[in-house]
Amino acid sequence: MLGNEAIRTQALEGIDHIVRNSMNKQNDLPFTVEKDGGISLTEAGQGIAEKIYARHTLLTKLLIHIGVSEETAAEDACKLEHSISDESFEAIRRYMEHHL
Looking at residue 84, what DSSP letter applies? Predict the structure, then answer.
């Protein structure tokens, strides 16, 4: 599980669409801004971070399995984890569970 420690705002780059999609209300952000410019994840933010990490891990493993180098697999997984739909990710997860 990821900690609820403060992280720098740059760490949010690339997940803006997930953040927007996860908010129930305009002011219901998944993080709080600290005085030093860092952020702390809320419980909702923690859930988003864990979801993205799970996607990254699984997609990296899949890409390595099909012959992509570890470095390229990790870089490509970073891109895919933010854009893949829940439906497609779950289908990949089920496939890997049964076939790999």
Answer: S
Q: What CATH number does the domain containing 33 carry?
A: 1.10.10.10
The total number of residues written for the chain in this structure: 100
3-state secondary structure of 88: helix
> Would you state the structure tokens that stand for residue 17, as one six-digit string?
């669409």
**Neighbour tally for 12: CB within 10 Å:** 15
What's the pLDDT tens digit per position in 2-23? Answer: 444 444 444 454 455 555 555 5
Query: Got the DSSP string for 45-81?
Result: HHHHHHHHHHHHHHHHHHHHHTT--HHHHHHHHHHHH
CA 70 to chain centre: 18
Structural domain containing residue 24? 7-99
